[in-house]
Design a protein that fits this description.
- There is one protein chain.
- A hairpin with an 8-residue loop joins β20 and β21.
- 0% of the residues lie in helices and 48% in strands.
- It is mostly beta strands.
- It has a 7-stranded antiparallel β-sheet, with no helix packed on it. Strands 4-6-10 form a 3-stranded antiparallel β-sheet, with no helix packed on it.
Length: 249
């Protein structure tokens, strides 16, 4: 996409002898993405064989806890500034973040309820963003999604997605002595061409109300959001729109 008019690449003609090649664009809006990570605690059971025959797909681990955090300790990432009608990257080192949303969890689960690791075609748990209660549409487009616009709603859904187990487990392997027990993960089709069955284990609303950032001594407050959902097993995008606050008289 070409840069804004008023640059060397796109000068603004004034008359046959003059043109504008530099314009100071006001940095009124800044956008950033929520930067959430999920840590999973793995559990299992031991038993003494021999037992039932070997069956695939199987797992020797299940999720016993799921805990959200901000990746690298920062609630926001991928800062963009809206100036001259386009979004442009903004160095995160220049920005101070405050008022991060409170994340849900940690969640606790019984053994053999949810798959805990990615093995033998099974899928490990992961966080996913989805649309919550959207408000009225704003005129500002979402970075990287010119056909999508922010809304004045300030919340979205954070979902822990996981693969469950079929009923009847766990089982003992066909070997002698102490060994890990295993269970069969829910799937469609037949091995080895089966498709994991992914489900919503937990869903919570996450609000950015009251969140602010600071750039060069100026404060920007959250005024809108936009969740761009994604198909499994992708997280999706949770964008936050910040507007520069008017100076205090």
């Amino acid at each position: 996409m070409p840069g804004p008019y008023g640059s060397l690449a796109n000068p603004v003609p004034l008359d046959p002898f003059q043109e504008i090649v530099a314009v100071h664009w006001t940095r009124r809006w800044i956008a950033a993405r929520l930067n959430i990570d999920l840590a999973v605690t793995i559990g299992g059971e031991d038993a003494v064989g021999p037992g039932l025959a070997f069956v695939e797909p199987f797992s020797q681990a299940s999720m016993t806890a799921g805990t959200y955090s901000y990746l690298d300790g920062d609630a926001l990432t991928d800062f963009q500034v809206f100036a001259g009608g386009i979004w442009s990257p903004l160095p995160s080192d220049d920005i101070t973040q405050s008022g991060a949303p409170t994340l849900p969890g940690p969640y606790s689960y019984d053994l053999w309820l949810w798959q805990g690791i990615d093995a033998f075609g099974c899928k490990e748990p992961y966080p996913r963003f989805d649309v919550g209660s959207e408000g009225a549409a704003l005129a500002t487009p979402v970075p990287g999604h010119s056909d999508e616009h922010f809304t004045d709603g300030l919340a979205g859904d954070l979902i822990l997605r996981a693969q469950g187990f079929v009923a009847g487990g766990p089982y003992i392997g066909p070997f002698a002595g102490l060994q890990p027990m295993w269970a069969t993960a829910e799937a469609t089709g037949s091995s080895p061409s089966f498709v994991p069955v992914l489900q919503d284990a937990e869903t919570e609303s996450v609000s950015v109300s009251g969140m602010t950032i600071e750039l060069e001594g100026k404060t920007y407050a959250a005024i809108g959001t936009k969740v761009i959902p994604a198909d499994d097993p992708v997280q999706g995008e949770f964008w936050v729109l910040f507007s520069r606050e008017a100076p205090t008289p």
